[in-house]
Amino acid sequence: MNPLEEALAIKDEIIAWRRDFHMYPELKYEEERTSKIVEEHLREWGYRIKRVGTGIIADIGEGKTIALRADMDALPVQEENDVPYKSRVPGKMHACGHDAHTAMLLGAAKIIAEHADEFSGRVRLIFQPAEEGGNGAVRMVEGGAMEGVDAVFGFHVWIGLDSGIIGIRDGPFLAGSGIFSGRLMGKGGHAASPQMSLDPVPPLAELILAYQTIVSRNVDPIETGVVSITSVHAGTTFNVIPETAEFKGTFRFFKQDVGELIKRRMLEVTEGIAKANGLKYELKVDDLTPPTINSKEMAAFARKVADKYGLKHGDVPPTMGSEDFAYYLQRAPGAFLALGIRNEEKGIVYPHHHPRFDVDEDVLHLGTAMEVALAMEFTRG
Questions:
Q1: Who is most buried in 132, 232, 249, 281, counting CB within 10 A?
Q2: b/e map 281-296, b = 16+ CB within 10 Å
Q3: Residue 345, domain extent
């Protein structure tokens, strides 16, 4: 069985699945329709199924075990593409390619089931909800996704690589992350009489600037970190000082101690600015998602597999983007791989999370082929 030939034979089917998922995007922990379609196919093909909320763990075979993971959730983005498969759900869009991930792994599932006698071990498929800020990987791990797993691999379509290139990297690939939200609480009043109020807006401006010094003046310049305020809201009209000023954002890091440092300094800075201005405050920082660090041995294995089956591959630089695939790598060695989808001739150049993001569908079968090849070679080894 040649994985590339098998994947090419169902290329149109993979594209059709991707387009269907794209038209009906579902946000984190809402993936009812998507997971139902996936489960129906997997049961038809003979997989043993375990549901974890809207997530699916599917096994076939016995013995040495490789896990392959795809995420299924979309984003709260209004799509601006003019394509036949444009999102039909207002305000929701697969702007990060999870529709492609699900379709590629579903294609791999079909090929693996059709050639199950050529696999010497067990293949586990993990269709995961809530990668976008929901830490769905944690729920899947708690639900048993990594029990008995010897190696784990995942794929992400990658706008930073030319179409058809499989990106493989040793060591740190994606950053760890923290998500935060908060508000400063004062006393509202008339904009013409600020002395009678406790205006939270100028202190919020001060806070935003102070957050930018956390990395530049607290983190070792040799290390990497970033803090971004991405949402600010205060007031509703021009002549009223608001009671509260709200904000939210994220920070990124490649070393856990750097992440903890940023979190600690955010709490200290927020408290200090609030007290200095006579305000109350709230700040919530979610549990930190760890960095995604690929196993050197598994990355080398992936390169060897790609070479064996004629799949083009290359290095991919690290990014401050974050992925909860990191939680799987804490339980078993593995690697998170990238599939290049950038195609300037087709106008596929927009970044992930952009309302005009799209993927080069003509290369999705290569991701499927690589997933099948990884499973076949690992279970035989």
A1: 281
A2: bebebeebbbbbbbbe
A3: 3-168+316-380
For residue 225, count CB atoms less than 10 angstroms from its CB and return exposed for 0-12, middle for 13-18, buried for 19 or more. Answer: buried
- Give this prediction's pTM: 0.92
Q: Both tokens of residue 106?
A: 């579903």
The 8-class DSSP code of residue 276 comes to: H
Q: What token pair was written down for 8?
A: 């090419």
Alpha carbon distance 141, 145 (integer Å): 5
CA dist., res. 307 & res. 301, Å (int): 10
Pairing of strands 292-294, 171-185: antiparallel
| Same domain as 370, residue 256 | no
* DSSP-assigned letters across all residues of 68-100: EEEE---BS------STT---STT-B--SSHHH
* Domain identity same for 129 and 277: no
Query: What CATH number corresponds to the domain at position 148?
Result: 3.40.630.10
> Is the distance from CB of 42 to CB of 100 less than 8 angstroms?
no
- Yes or no: say if 159 and 351 are a contact pair by the CB < 8 Å rule: yes
Q: Are residues 29 and 72 in the same domain?
A: yes
Q: Count Cβ atoms below 10 Å from residue 138 Cβ, excluding itself.
A: 14
pLDDT of the chain, 381 residues: tens digit per residue: 999 999 999 999 999 999 999 999 999 999 999 999 999 999 999 999 999 999 999 999 999 999 999 999 999 999 999 999 999 999 999 999 999 999 999 999 999 999 999 999 999 999 999 999 899 999 999 999 999 999 999 999 999 999 999 999 999 999 999 999 999 999 999 999 999 999 999 999 999 999 999 999 999 999 999 999 999 999 999 999 999 999 999 999 999 999 999 999 999 999 999 999 999 999 999 989 999 999 999 999 999 999 999 999 999 999 999 999 999 999 999 999 999 999 999 999 999 999 999 999 999 999 999 999 999 999 987
Q: List the CATH number of the domain containing 195.
A: 3.30.70.360
Contact (Cβ atoms closer than 8 angstroms) between residue 354 and residue 95: yes
Give the Cβ contact number of residue 9 at 10 Å. Answer: 12
Angle 260-167-356 (CA atoms, 0-180°, nearest 5)?
80
